[in-house]
Design goal:
Structural class: alpha+beta
Shape: elongated
Strand order of the largest sheet: 1-2-3-4
Number of domains: 1
Strand content: 15-25%
Distance between the termini: 75 Å
Order of helices and strands: HHEEEEH
Number of helices: 3
Radius of gyration: 25 Å
Number of strands: 4
Length: 149
């Protein structure tokens, strides 16, 4: 009977195992930021849908009253998006228009450039703005990215 030598045994060496771990680490470090970016964009879409829903409800409210609603409570909408990633608020209203803002909360606040979204309706004109803070100072290209236009 022949005794196995160290060369005839099969299996992984420590060096091979460390190479596999290093490759997995590099691949995951490239994949995780892309995944997080996709999740931020998905949550941002939720805020946009909530703002558009608020626009629709504001128009219904205006049809029954002489002015647009001054708060979300008044028009019958919740103050956060369904998943709770954005806080919504009516920041201005008049007979001819209103302004609704969405501010990122929780993990969505890591979406720095698009942390704040604003929709302004003035008569038939609708303007979309975004920013890292409430100054909504994003340049046009970044604003289009935030609103996916």
């Amino acid at each position: 009977m022949k005794h196995p030598t160290s060369r005839s045994c099969t299996g992984f060496t420590l060096v091979e195992m460390m190479c596999a771990v290093a490759i997995a680490g590099v691949v995951s470090s490239l994949a995780v930021p892309g995944y997080q970016s996709a999740m931020q964009k998905t949550r941002r879409c939720e805020a946009q849908v909530a703002l558009l829903q608020a626009q629709m409800v504001q128009e219904r409210f205006r049809a029954d009253h002489a002015i647009y609603g001054s708060s979300l409570t008044e028009i019958g909408l919740p103050a956060t998006t369904p998943s709770g990633y954005y806080a919504l608020s009516v920041t201005d209203h008049s007979k001819s228009g209103y302004e609704i803002q969405a501010a990122a909360m929780a993990v969505q606040s890591a979406d720095i450039q698009c942390r704040h979204l604003r929709m302004t309706v003035d008569g038939y004109n609708i303007a979309y703005a975004s920013g890292a803070d409430t100054s909504f100072s994003n340049p046009i290209a970044v604003n289009k990215k935030c609103w996916a236009q």
